[in-house]
Write a structure and sequence with these properties.
The chain is mainly α and 169 residues long. 76% of the residues lie in helices and 0% in strands. It contains 8 helices and no strands. The longest helix has 28 residues.
């Protein structure tokens, strides 16, 4: 109820924190009947943490990975949330690097950004392999590939995205 109240008030970071706490409680109790809610609460928390105005990307990735570990077979929802989060986090660090004046800190941010984009590409490939009719996976894979310089692959994936989405970006 407190998480839902925080959500209604627009305090998504607080709501996400409460959802994660509820999952922790559910995982720690002996009542298996409430465990079916855990994955959805983790996905919601992860999506809230990754909203750019909250930008708690490390927290988002932790809870999204927890949600993925609860699946026997990957679902598109979980995979695309993880893909988007890695991409958005990479973009944030890339933007931070562009604004950074200290050369050492700038290089560190650029390296971390490239690593996140690389991980986004890995997840994007898995997403598009598992869900070849879902255009959004191809879009985020393509955008991630641009960021690491894989332009030919990016073009091919963007064309697939356009075909799946009816030709409109």
């Amino acid at each position: 109820d407190i998480a839902n109240l925080a959500n209604e008030e627009g305090d998504y970071a607080r709501a996400a924190d409460f959802y994660v706490r509820v999952v922790d409680l559910y995982e720690g109790d002996t009542d298996a009947a409430n465990d079916d809610q855990n994955k959805d609460m983790l996905l919601i928390a992860g999506s809230w943490y990754s909203v750019p105005s909250i930008a708690r990307y490390d927290d988002a990735l932790v809870v999204l990975d927890r949600a993925a570990n609860l699946e026997l077979l990957p679902t598109f929802r979980t995979m695309i949330l993880r893909l988007k989060t890695f991409y958005k986090y990479g973009k944030k660090l890339k933007d931070d690097a562009a604004a950074e004046q200290d050369p050492v800190a700038k290089a560190d941010l650029e390296t971390r950004s490239k690593e996140l984009f690389g991980r986004a590409v890995e997840i994007g490939i898995a997403t598009t392999n598992n869900f070849p009719t879902e255009g959004e996976g191809f879009l985020y894979l393509s955008m991630s590939q641009v960021e690491i310089g894989e332009y030919t692959a990016s073009d091919a994936n963007f064309k697939t995205y356009q075909e799946l989405s009816g030709g409109t970006p």
